[in-house]
Amino acid sequence: QVQLVESGGGLVQAGGSLRLSCAASGRTFSRFAMGWFRQAPGKEREFVAAISQSGGKTYYADSVKGRFTISRDNAKNTVYLQMNSLKPEDTAVYYCAADPLYRPFLSIATSEYDYWGQGTQVTVSS
User: Fold this and answer.
1) Among 20, 55, 99, 105, whose CB has the most other CB atoms within 10 angstroms?
2) Residue 12 has pLDDT above 80, yes or no
């Protein structure tokens, strides 16, 4: 079991940056692959980025590759999403999620993440 709490969202102008944090409870954080997803109004939740248990592997959606960076600090039970060069189309509620299974590849499917945070709003103005 793990509980996730996101923070760091807000309103930013296009071209700006934000860093999201997701703090996890419990002592088993390092056993989970972690992902960031987002959901815009009227749209389905979509994959943004994922990171392996050790942090050695990462994977990004094409739409954010080169602009967003996922990282984690297992000593602090926290995963981060650094978002640079933000665009209005990045506006969404951002969720972090935990995948308890060891997989050969990082998952982009919402169904494979068992634990979810409550989300944090990111709004990018043009």
Assistant:
1) 20
2) yes
